[in-house]
Amino acid sequence: MGQAFACCKGLDFSHMQHHFAKGARQSFVLAAAAQQPSWVVDDMQDSCYGCAAEFNYRNRKHHCRRCHNIYCDACTAYREKLLLFGFTQAVRLCQMCLTAAREENSFLDDHLPLLQEGSTFLRHHGYGRKVPIFVKLSPDTASLVCMEPGRGAAGSSLVFLAEVRSVSMEHASTLVLQLQASSTTLKFDACSTNECRAWLEALQAACAWSQRPALKQAVEEARAARWEQLQYAQYSKAAAENRKQRQAAREQMAAKYNISSFSSSYAHRRAVSNGYAVS
Description:
There is one protein chain. This protein has 279 residues and is α+β, with helices and mostly antiparallel strands. It is built from 7 helices and 11 strands. It folds into 3 domains: 2-23 and 118-210, PH-domain like; 36-105, Herpes Virus-1 (2-Layer Sandwich), CATH 3.30.40; 219-262. A hairpin with a 3-residue loop joins strand 9 and strand 10 (174-179). The termini are far apart. Mean pLDDT is 81; it is low at 1-22. It comes from Tribonema minus.
C-alpha cells in the first residue's frame, strides 16, 4: 500500500485542476443569486413579519437581506456575513436567517475550499485492486468528479451528492460512500487520517447542502402560510366584533323596551327550538 501511495503522490494532476479553475464559491453565489426570494415592497406590509408590530414613524421597516421579508428593527438586530449572496461584510438579518447564514458560511468557508481544490485518493476496485483517482467538486457543485489519470473521458465518472445516502470513515484513512438507489459502496483511501477526516466532514456537509430545500421555494411557501394565518385571524377578529355588535344591539333593545331578561329569554327560546329540555 505504501508503494501505491508513493506512485499516487508522484502523479501530475495539474491539468485536471486547471480544467476546474473557476471557483466553486462563485458557482454557489451565481446559483443563489438566480434563486433569491422576491423582494417584499415596503407598501405591501404594514406590520413586522416577525412580531406583527405595526409600523409607524418610530417603528421603521427593515429588510432581512436573506429572506427579503420586512421586519422591525428589533427583529432584524442581527448582523452576519452572507457569503451565499456574495456579502463578505455583515448585513442585517432576521433571527431565523442568522442561524441559516452561519451554517452556510461555515460550509463555504471551511469545507468548500477543500472540495474545490480536490485531492488524490486510491479508489477500491474488485479483488483488492486500488486505482489512483483525482476527486473534486464539480463546477455546478452537484456532484463529485472522479478522474483516473491517462484515461481521458473514459476514466471520468460522476457521483451525484443527492444520491449519497451516507458518508463514513473506515479504518484510519478510508472514506466510504453509500449510494441511495443501490447497494453500491464506494471506498477511497486518503493519504492520511487527518485528510480523511477533513474530507469526511466536508462531504457530509456537501451532501446535507445538496438536499436542502431551495431558499426561494421555502421562503415563498412560508409567506403563503403566514398570509393564510393572517387572513384567518382577520376573519376571526371580524366575526368576534360582529357578535359583539349584535349582543350590544340586543342589550340596547332590551333597555329600550325595559326587557331585563332579554338575553336569558333569547337563550331559553333558542334552547327550546333546538330540542333541549329546559327546567
